[in-house]
Structure formats: structure tokens, C-alpha cells
Amino acid sequence: MSLPICTYGNPVLRKKAEPVAEINDDIRALAKEMFETMYKEQGVGLAAEQVGRTERMFIVDIPVASDTDDASGERENPEIEMPLVFINPEITGHSEEIQIGQEGCLSFPGVFATVERWYEVDAEYTDLEGCRKTIHAKGLLARAIQHELDHLDGILLVDRMSPVKKVAIGGKLKRLVKETKQAL
Ligand code: NI
Fold first, then answer.
1. Spacing, Cα 8 to ligand 1 middle (Å)
2. What whole-number distance in Å separates Cα of residue 130 and Cα of residue 14?
3. Would the pLDDT of 166 be above 90?
4. Active site members
5. pLDDT of res. 70
6. What residue ranges do the domains of the chain occupy?
């Protein structure tokens, strides 16, 4: 069953997520519902807070067609199998190189902004089987990991966009907050 998405203005999006103590049926059911929600909404990543939960956990599924370097056309992460569930994730290292790219977020429908992210990241996380894993990610996958990890710390797309962009879409953001609060 898919879940409703919490949009900008919902206070849960500003909460700091709580570490997951145990991978139990509740967590497995949450992961399943998060995938159903993400695929229904056609996203490539989703954090637990976006469905109103505070577990330190997110999911990512980058389609093969999007996992390519713009310049060379080569796969960025050919060895990494999707989809991925990140429980208690941490970024443990990153490239010096920064990549500027367009980002959207299911909690900000219709909003896209350019955001600077590290081009490559190393991350550690626990998977749904309870194994601690490491991953070296590039490009859009690295961007998605950074975006979703931000969610777990209560940091949102609106905090990462340029002040100029934030002003430019100020009216849209205000309307979104108003709609969100009315629906709560
Ligand atoms: Ni997001």
C-alpha cells in the first residue's frame, strides 16, 4: 500500500530521524510501503520522514538510463544493484569534486533547483538483512544519497538552493506551505 507524501510545511520534515535499533517486521513493512510510494510518485529516492516516520532510513532506485555520465555516456555505478535500502546511513568520505545538478523532491511537487553536491561519496549503512555495508557512489546516485541523508537531518531542498532561487519561487513555496498546513 502506498502512503501519502508529507509536503513542505509538515513539521515532520524538520525532525532529526532516530536510529533504527532493530530490523524487524515493522521496518521491513515500512521499506515495502516506502517503495510502493516512491514508485507510484515516480521518485528515485524517499526518506522515512517523507511518509511521516522518524526512522533513520531511506530508499533509492536510480534507473539504469539515469545512471550515466553526461559527458562520456558511460554508466556511473555499473557494479551497484538497485534498489537500495539505507538504514542508519552515514557518509564516511567524499570526492573533492563538486557537481552542480538539478534536483527535485517529492515533498516539493513541481519544484526543481540546481544544487551543488559532492560528485562521489563513500557511505556506510545497514541493509534490510541487518548487514553493515559500504558503498562508493558517483553521479546521480551520490546526489540522491546526499539528498536523502539531508532529509534524515531535517535539511530540505529549500535549504540547499541559492538565495536567488528561493526568492524567485517564494510565492510557490508559500502556497505549498499553506496547502500543507490546511491538509494537516
Ligand atoms: Ni527529497
1. 10
2. 27
3. yes
4. 148
5. 80
6. 11-183
